[in-house]
Specification:
Length: 80
């Protein structure tokens, strides 16, 4: 049991260190909502991303087109 607890502590410490090194929090998103985006509206799918913190400034990482495709790009958020 102690071995599992020790491993868990190491994993949590590694996640915390990665958060500081990358300069981005692990569990937060940028404010605002993603706009509805269709692939034809986006020329060339500029700025591909995996999370909000892959995007510059206030832009969010948003799905483009079909959710099953799981294509994401950086887009200006809707704040309402």
């Amino acid at each position: 049991m102690a071995s599992f607890a020790l491993r868990l502590c190491f994993v949590l410490a590694a996640l915390l260190m990665a958060s500081f090194v990358c300069g981005t929090p692990f569990f937060e998103e940028k404010p605002g909502l993603c706009p509805r985006l269709n692939a034809p509206q986006i020329p060339g799918h500029e700025n591909p991303c995996r999370s909000d913190y892959d995007c510059p400034r206030v832009e969010k990482c948003c799905l483009v087109g079909s959710p099953s495709a799981n294509d994401r790009i950086c887009a200006e958020p809707y704040i309402g």
